[in-house]
Amino acid sequence: MNESSRPLVAILVGSKSDWETMRHADEMLTRFGVEHESRVLSAHRTPMETTDYVARAETRGVEVFIAAAGGAAHLAGTVAAHTLLPVLGVPIESSALKGLDALLATVQMPGGVPVATLAIGKAGAVNAALLAVSVLAGSRPELKEKLKAFRQEQKEKVLKETLP
Ligand code: RP5
After folding, report:
1. Which of 19, 22, 47, 68 is 20 to 30 A from 120 in CA distance terms?
2. What number of CA atoms fall less than 13 Å from residue 110's CA on the CB side?
3. Separation of 145 CA from ligand 1 center, angstroms?
4. How much is the mean pLDDT over the chain?
C-alpha cells in the first residue's frame, strides 16, 4: 500500500480484499497528482488502531478520508465518529448481497455524524477520489483546472462516439 509523508487524502479499506475495488480511487488520485496514502484498517478487527490512525491523521495533513468496506460496513461511520474532516464512504460489493448490505450500512448514518456515500464498487471508488479532489480544489486553483480538463475530456469522448 502506498504511504505518503504528507498525505492530503487517506484511503482506508476494511480488508486487503477491498483493494481490487479501491485501487481505482488510488489511481485517480495519482492521476490528479494528489498526495495520498492507503491503509488496511478494520472497524471490527483493528478498532483501536483505526481510531488512533484517524486521531493522528489531521495533524499529519490529511484533509479528506475515503473509507471502504463490505458486508456490515461500519468503517466509514467509525472514521466519521472520530473526525470533523469529510468522510467519503464506498460500499464494497460482497458475494452474498452484491454490496446492498454495505450500501445501506454506509449510507444510513443517523443524522448528526455524516458520511458522504458513493456508489457500490468501482464507480464509487472513482467518484470518491473525484469528490476528494473537488473538496481540495476549493482552496487549490490548480486542482480546479485539472477537474475542468477532466470533465472536458469526458465531454469530448461522448461527442465523438458513434452508433452502429
Ligand atoms: C469487511 O469484510 C471488509 O471491508 C471486506 O469487504 C469484507 C470481507 O473481508 P475479508 O474476509 O475478505 O478480509 O470488513
Report:
1. 47
2. 2
3. 37
4. 96
41 lines ligand 1 (CB under 6 A): no
CA angle, 33 then 39 then 40, to 5°: 145
Instruction: Give nearest CA residue, ligand 1 atom 9.
Output: 15
Domains contained in the chain, CATH given: 9-160 (3.40.50.1970)
Report whether 115 contacts 90 (CB < 8 A).
no
- pLDDT at 2 > cutoff 60: no
Render pLDDT for 133-163 as a digit per residue (tens, 0 to 9): 999 999 999 999 999 999 999 999 999 999 9
**Alpha carbons 61 and 10: distance in angstroms, whole number:** 10
Over the stretch 34-48, which tens digit does the pLDDT of each residue have?
Answer: 999 999 999 999 999
Which residues partner with 44 through β-bridges?
A: none
Distance between CA atoms of 3 and 20, rounded to whole angstroms? 17
22 closest CA partner among 48, 8, 40 = 40
Tell me the best of 18, 23, 94 to mutate to test the pocket of ligand 1, counting ligand atoms within 8 Å of each CB and taking the most.
Answer: 18
How long a stretch of residues is the chain? 164
CB-based contacts of 22, cutoff 8 Å, min separation 6: 11, 13, 38, 66, 68, 90, 92, 125
